[in-house]
Every structure is written in C-alpha cells, then in structure tokens.
Amino acid sequence: MSELQQAQIVVQLGSSLTGKRVLQWQATCEPEEYWVVDNLPGRLDPAHHRGRRLVCPVEQWLDLHPAESRQPWATTIPELSRQAWQAAADRSEAFGEAQLAHRIHPLPSGTGAAVCR
Question: What's an example Gene Ontology biological process for this entry (predicted)?
Fold first, then answer.
C-alpha cells in the first residue's frame, strides 16, 4: 500500500486538482475525512468523497490552522519528488532536436527561411 493511500485525512486547498496522476489518486483514495477549502461555493470533488466543504479563502484558513510539528509519515514522497525533478532537469539540459525545438522561436511566416534536417 502506498504512503498516500494510508492518509487518514486529505485537505484539498483550492477548487480543483490538476494532473492525470493526481486525479487518478483522488478518484481511488479512501481517507476517513476529505476536506475541500476554497472560497468558491459548490461541489468540487469529482470523486464525491464523504467529508467537509469549507467555504473561505485558502490564505485565511491557513492562518487559522498553522502547521504542527510532527514525525514525518510519508518519508519516500520527498525523495521521489527530488528524483522526478532531477530527471526532468537532466532531460531538458541535454542537447537534442526536441530541446532545440523547444528553445527556438518560430520564424515569422513569409521569410523564406528553411530548416534543413
């Protein structure tokens, strides 16, 4: 069982999550409590978890609920995050056609310029 699947409570800050993997996790997670904190009214959890909907600005909620010092429980997540960041950085720094295409600005149309391959 992954560390995220062991979460007892999920506090979602903001109206919606983005990203394929995060949405897949959200659809399958089964915490005891699922809270959504956002100042927009209405239902925002597509997985329809049983929990609380707290309508207030996220900043205000964070000010009223400061973090408490606790023993870390998801110890592998920071390392996985670091590895993902490093892998992305390694792939973007190497020289190759994809990296060049990503960095070059499109040529204006009608200039007669050609790109040789």
Answer: menaquinone biosynthetic process
Check residue 108 and report its DSSP letter. Answer: P
Helix, strand, or coil here: 115? coil
Give pLDDT tens digits for 6-65: 888 888 888 777 788 888 888 888 888 888 898 887 766 666 777 788 889 999 999 998
Where residue 76 falls (left for φ over 0; alpha for ψ -120 to 50; beta otherwise) is alpha
Phi (first) and psi of residue 49, to 5 degrees: -70, 150
User: End-to-end CA distance of the chain, in Å?
Assistant: 48
CATH number of domain containing 13: 3.40.50.1220
Residue 100 lies in a domain: no
Q: Residue 68: which region, alpha, beta or left (left: phi > 0; alpha: psi -120 to 50)?
A: beta
Kindly report the pTM of this predicted structure: 0.55
- Identify whether 8 is part of a domain: yes
Return contacts of 82-87, CB within 8 angstroms, 24+ apart: none
